[in-house]
Every structure is written in structure tokens, then in C-alpha cells.
Write a structure and sequence with these properties.
The complex is a heterodimer of chains A (518) and B (121). Chain A has helices at residues 40-43, 45-53, 83-93, 99-102, 123-132, 145-148, 162-173, 204-216, 230-235, 237-240, 246-258, 285-289, 300-303, 319-324, 326-331, 374-382, 385-389, 414-436, 448-452, 464-471, 477-494, 501-512, and strands spanning 3-12, 15-26, 31-35, 65-71, 106-107, 110-111, 117-118, 137-141, 155-159, 220-223, 276-277, 290-291, 297-298, 308-311, 333-337, 342-346, 350-355, 394-397. With 518 residues, chain A is α/β, with parallel strands linked by helices. The longest helix of chain B has 20 residues, at 3-22. The radius of gyration of chain B is 14 Å and the shape is globular. The chains are: A alpha/beta (518), B alpha+beta (121).
Chain lengths: 518, 121
């Protein structure tokens, strides 16, 4: 009887923090108190542990006075992942497992009434946090073992059942060798259906915009009538983007782990392709930006970190949701502030918006079939308006393909476009290395002041048309910078050293085709 | 309450009193009742006034006897102890209050097993 101690990890945003779990067990009137700012899931862990402990001889938890403390006690603790740590700390206090062995081991997992150890979300960031503070051994549920093993520098011990874990610890205390619990092999997930760019017929302008968008990291607006292929085009953007780097993969996989979005079989490998997230236009602000009651969950913009956020039917989204996108677009992160705590989620995503030209969808070309009043049309796009649209470098109109194109030869495949994108991206990475003070920067990240100053300033005979547009007030200074960025990307795609007059003119036209100025 | 459990409770309380006497305590009162409830045993241990709850069981199938003393029962015991002291101011003068619980497990055959917890709440 006495004091038992072990460790566990709590989740805050998409990062973990190591928690010391202390248990004090004395004879006395039975009771089970858990202190340390746990939510109701943590408080109820006492009931689960009592039932599971009843399966073990010499562990009469329900007849003892048990006090558990989760330290740092001032930090909020959420979820059922502390069950296993509390269970082992109590077992240590009752001398069922060797105190010295379990003290420095991290335990993560939910305990069932029958003693099974169940998986919990967010194991990847939890184990990573443990590894960062120098923990050597972590015990995780069997179902989370694959995910935990993605973290280097720690030994992962899968566990299926608490009785078996206590037995193994006891054997270890007596100096016996203990076999690892085998992890059942899970079949790898079926490969994503390949969405190839060659399936898109015609749409040369839109495809060009898509390629430029992928190459320079530019946000994109596709406007066009229903059936023109806006969604089809947007879905092919991730295929054009380069695979994620190692650090990016880890970040993206950790976010998906917290969201519980790693499918079966996916949990043992990192996500290496840029994610594509397409929330429905009815999505709430909490779903898109992050938040929610109780635990603060990452939203769609964080799920799309290092990938593509696609808003289909953008004007149908709630105005508040669209406005809330502005700051993350600028800073690449979103802070959710509560009275008690503030959580910051990463949200560096590429935004692709799709919209009909007007509420009825027929207001394209001459607009003869359109039944909308001018007021309706204005209100429809007014929702996107100023500040948000100001951050979108490419705004193109997608025309419906004509009948003659239906039988046309397939276009260029994704693979060859992706190769050009990769080449363009590496050129940018080298060029902006100094200006951005980080690797892998793309044209979209470069500040306008850099583009307008030496050595990157373009000669005035190249920017004649653009200069004229800014003088006449047709283009704002911000628009001027965005046009320059696009021109640079077009040059990169073409393999040019610098954009010339043609590239600048093309960049200007790609900004105005949508005709959304109304 | 049926007769046998009443009898079992009386048996447990007699056993508890004998035990407390053997420990050198002086029994002041037994089965004291008021509108708020009942105190099983009141005794004096040196400078302490001991209010004692006795729990008797024949089997642990429904949990150990101690488990029956829940939070709300502890609260009630504290309140009753105060009431007894108010009622017997002359006897309780100068004594510190202590609440004990005695658990008695009496299997159908074999010896009864007594456990005594001091100063529980």
C-alpha cells in the first residue's frame, strides 16, 4: 500500500504534453477521487478502472481509498486516454507491478469494463510529445501500435488487456523475459482512385490556371455554370502537387490522428499526399475553423494543412465562415481563444473555391437564360467580396465544354503536368530562399515589397499594361503584387528566368476572367 | 427490514461493543435515535468522543461492508454526531469528535471477521 507513479500524455490542440500520474492507495472508507482538472471522461475513468481491477486478484480497488492526481494539475485533461496510466499507477501503489519499472513508462489507452485496452485518438502526437521529453518506453493499445511506431526514438509496447499487462510487469519485476504482444497485420488501404487530369476534356484555360495554381501555391476561384467541370478540376489539384516532405507528412498525419481520420490500415503509415478537404457548404464555423464545445477540435482548414481546401458552391457558405477564413489565409495558422485557454492550429492550405456565375447558374456568356435580377447577382458574389477575394490570385471562368469536345482526345495526363509543377517549385525554392528565410517557399508566399524591389523588380517595358491598369484604378496595389506573383509562376512553369511582357499580360487576364467584379 | 437482518445488525453491534470495550473504550450510548437518523454506538476513547457506525454482512457478494458507507452516509454521520453532542453537552464537554466505522463480516460458518477504521471523515 502506498504511492504509485507513472506517466501519460494529454492532448492540447494537436500537440501532446506529458502528465505525471500519481496514485495514493490507503485502507479506509472506499472512494476514488481524481484530481487535476479532468473532464467528465477522466472523472468516470474511476468506474471503468474499478470494474477492470475486479478481474485481478489482490486488486480490491473498490474497497480502498484511492486518490489520483494528474500533474501538472492546472492543465485541462480531456478524454479517456488516461485510463491506462491511472490503472497502472494504482496497481503500482498496491504493489502489483514494480514501482521502479513503471515510473518512467508512458501509458496511453482507454480501459474497458472487461479489462480490454481500447484505442484512443491522437496517439501519434501523444507519443511524439513523450519522445521529445526523452521518454524511452510507451505502452499503447494494440490498435494504435502501428501509428505509435511511426515515431522514432521510443520503444512501443502494444497491450491488449490490463490483466495481461499487470502479469507481464510482475514477471518483469521478477527478472523474467517478457514476450511482446503481436500486432495483427492490417491490409493496407485500397489505393485512392486515380483522378487524372487527362479525364478533363477541353478547358484549356482552366487547366492552365490549375497548373499555375499548383506551381505557385496560388489560391484559385473557378466560376462557371453547373456541369462545367469545376469540381472535377478542383479534385485534380492535389495530384499536381508534390508529395509531402518528412516533417510535413508527420504534421499532417498527426492532425488526422487527432481527428480520428486515419482509416484502417492507414494508421501504420504516414500520409504522404497533400490532403484534399471539401466541407459541405452547410458546415458550421466550428467545423471549418476549429472549436466545438468542450474539447477544442481542429477544423477543416487544419485538416487541409499542407493540402487543398475546396469550397464547392462557395457563395452558399455562411458569411461568417467565409470571413473567418481571412486570417488563416494570411498567417497559415488559426487561434481558437476561450476564456480558459487558447489553442493554435496550423492551417497553411491552398484554397480552391468554386461558384456559379449567379444563383440560377445560367448567367454566363450572354446570359440569355439567366433569370436572376442584377441585385441577386450582385448579392451572390458580394458574399465572397473584397477581403477574401483579394487573397485569391487566380480567378478564372470555366465554360461548359461544347458537344464537339465530348469525343475529343484525352488531354495531358497528371504525371507530366506534375513534373512541370515540381520543376517550377524547385526553381522558386532556390530563388526565394533568402527572401523568405525558409526552404520550399512558393511565389504565393513572397511579399510584394520583395517583388517590387531590386533585384526582382521587372523592367517597366515588361509591366506597361499593368502599370496603366494601376494608374486608371482598375487594379489595386495588392492586385498589382498578385499579378506579379502569377507572372513569376507562369515564367517558372515555362522554364523562363524571368517573366516577360507576355507572362505579365497572361497573369492579368487570369485575374479578371471570372467577371466577378460586379 | 426483516427480522433476520435486524438480528444480524444487533449481533454486529454487540460484537462491536465487546471489541471496543476490550480496546479500553467506554461505551456511552447505543442505538441513539433522532428524526435525522440513528447512531449505532457512542464511546469515549481518552480525550476523544467516538461516534461509531457498525456494518454487518454475511457475504461480500454485494461488496465489502465498508463500501456501503457512501459519501452521503458519511455526511449524515457527521451531522448526527453533532446532534448527539448537542443533546449530551455534559458528557461531551472537552472531547474532540471522531467518527469510526466498524465492519463485521460473518460468513454462515466460521469466525466473524472484524475491521475497525478510525477517523474516517
Amino acid at each position: 500500500m502506498g504511492l504509485g507513479r507513472t506517466r501519460s500524455v494529454g492532448l492540447r490542440g494537436v500537440h501532446g504534453f506529458v502528465v505525471d500520474v500519481e496514485a495514493h492507495v490507503t485502507p479506509g472508507l472506499p472512494g476514488f477521487a481524481i484530481s487535476g482538472l479532468g473532464d467528465s471522461a477522466v472523472k468516470q475513468s474511476s468506474d471503468r478502472i474499478k470494474a477492470a481491477a475486479a478481474l485481478i486478484e489482490k486488486m480490491p480497488v473498490s474497497q480502498r481509498r484511492v486518490t489520483v492526481n494528474l500533474s501538472p494539475a492546472g492543465e485541462r485533461k480531456v478524454g479517456t486516454g488516461f485510463d491506462l496510466g491511472i490503472f497502472i499507477a494504482v496497481a503500482a501503489a498496491m504493489d502489483l507491478v514494480p514501482v521502479g519499472v513503471v515510473r518512467d513508462v508512458v501509458h496511453i489507452g482507454e480501459v474497458g469494463l472487461d479489462g480490454t485496452v481500447r484505442p484512443v485518438p491522437g496517439v501519434l502526437p501523444l507519443v511524439r510529445a513523450a519522445s521529445l521529453v526523452g521518454v524511452r518506453h510507451v505502452v499503447v493499445p494494440v490498435a494504435n501500435a502501428g501509428e505509435a511506431r511511426l515515431v522514432s526514438g521510443v520503444r512501443v509496447h502494444p497491450v491488449a488487456d490490463v490483466t495481461e499487462l499487470v502479469r507481464r510487469y510482475a514477471a518483469l519485476g521478477k527478472g523474467r523475459r517478457v514476450e511482446e504482444v503481436p500486432v495483427p497485420r492490417v491490409a493496407p488501404p485500397p489505393p485512392e482512385p486515380v483522378r487524372d487530369l487527362s479525364e478533363v476534356v477541353g478547358q484549356a484555360d482552366a487547366k492552365l490556371a490549375l497548373e499555375i495554381s499548383a506551381a505557385g501555391g496560388h489560391h484559385l476561384l473557378l466560376a462557371g455554370p453547373p456541369g462545367a467541370g469545376k469540381t472535377m478540376l478542383a479534385e485534380r489539384l492535389p495530384g499536381l502537387l508534390p508529395a509531402l516532405g518528412e516533417a510535413e507528412s508527420m504534421e499532417v498525419t498527426a492532425i488526422h490522428s487527432v481527428l480520428g481520420a486515419l482509416g484502417p490500415g492507414q494508421d501504420a503509415r504516414l500520409i504522404t499526399r497533400p490532403p484534399f478537404v471539401a466541407p459541405h457548404h452547410g458546415a458550421s464555423q466550428a467545423a471549418v475553423i476549429g472549436g466545438g464545445s468542450g474539447r477544442i477540435r481542429p477544423g477543416a482548414i487544419t485538416q487541409a494543412h499542407h493540402g487543398v481546401l475546396f469550397l464547392d458552391e462557395t457563395p452558399e457558405f455562411d458569411k461568417g465562415v467565409l470571413q473567418a477564413l481571412r486570417t488563416p489565409l494570411e498567417s497559415g495558422a488559426v487561434s481558437i481563444a476561450r476564456a480558459q485557454e487558447t489553442v493554435t492550429f496550423p492551417a497553411r492550405f491552398q484554397l480552391v473555391m468554386a461558384a456559379n456565375p449567379c444563383p440560377c447558374g445560367h448567367g454566363w456568356g450572354k446570359g440569355l437564360d439567366c433569370t436572376c435580377t442584377p441585385l441577386m447577382r450582385r448579392a451572390y458574389f458580394g458574399k465572397l467580396s473584397g477581403p477574401l477575394l483579394d487573397r485569391v490570385d487566380l480567378q478564372v471562368h470555366v465554360q461548359p465544354p461544347g458537344l464537339s469536345l465530348a469525343g475529343a482526345a484525352p488531354g495531358e495526363p497528371t504525371a507530366s503536368v506534375a513534373a512541370r509543377v515540381a520543376a517550377a517549385r524547385s526553381a522558386q525554392g532556390e530563388r526565394w530562399h533568402e527572401a523568405l528565410e525558409r526552404r520550399g517557399g512558393v511565389n504565393a508566399d513572397v511579399p510584394g515589397s520583395v517583388l517590387r524591389a531590386r533585384p526582382w523588380r521587372l523592367p517597366s517595358n515588361t509591366t506597361t499594361a499593368l502599370d496603366r491598369a494601376i494608374e486608371s484604378g482598375a487594379v489595386s496595389l495588392r492586385g498589382y503584387d498578385r499579378t506579379l506573383r502569377c507572372a513569376w509562376t507562369i515564367a517558372d512553369v515555362l522554364g523562363l528566368q524571368r517573366p516577360g511582357r507576355e507572362q505579365v499580360d497572361l497573369a492579368m487576364s487570369l485575374r479578371h476572367r471570372a467577371g466577378v467584379a460586379a | 427490514m426483516d427480522l433476520s437482518s435486524r438480528a444480524l445488525g444487533d449481533y454486529g453491534e454487540r460484537l462491536a461493543c465487546r471489541y471496543l470495550l476490550a480496546q479500553g473504550l467506554t461505551i456511552l450510548d447505543r442505538n441513539w435515535r433522532c428524526v435525522r437518523g440513528e447512531i449505532d454506538v457512542v464511546a469515549v476513547d481518552g480525550r476523544e468522543l467516538v461516534v461509531c457506525e457498525v456494518k454487518t454482512r454475511t457475504t461480500e457478494a454485494y461488496g465489502a461492508p465498508f463500501e456501503a458507507v457512501t459519501r452521503s452516509k458519511q455526511r449524515r454521520l457527521r451531522r448526527l454526531a453533532g446532534l448527539w453532542r448537542d443533546d449530551h453537552a455534559d458528557l461531551a464537554r472537552g472531547l474532540a469528535l471522531r467518527i469510526d466505522v466498524i465492519s463485521i463480516l460473518r460468513p454462515p460458518s466460521g469466525r466473524a471477521h472484524l475491521e475497525h477504521l478510525r477517523a474516517v471523515c
